[in-house]
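Suppose you are handed a protein chain with no further information: no name, no annotation, nothing but its sequence. What can you learn? This example shows the usual starting point.
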Amino acid sequence: MIPLPAGVRVWLATGYTDMRKGFPSLALQVQEILHRDPLGGHLFCFRGRRGNLLKVIWHDGQGACLFTKRLERGRFIWPSPAEGVVTISSAQLGYLLSGIDWRHPQETWRPTSVG
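A reasonable first move is to predict its three-dimensional structure. Written in structure tokens, the prediction is:
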């Protein structure tokens, strides 16, 4: 997991993105489509057409970072383009990167003691 400083937001680029793009092209997409500053310290996530590949760009104040994750099975849960710009919490990012539905994570049932 990426150690996120306090106040950092996580933005999802809805729809799908050409996964051949690197940091410069994705940063341009952040500026033109999301209307955000890609060098502002926030994380921006992009998903490929198949849904099993995710790229995250982040400028940590010292340099540009590009993280990539491919799921061996399943797909990343992603908002539709109609939902517009979507921001999630760092906890939801953890679920997303694990392939878990970040919109509705379920708690496991725990038995209560009888007494």
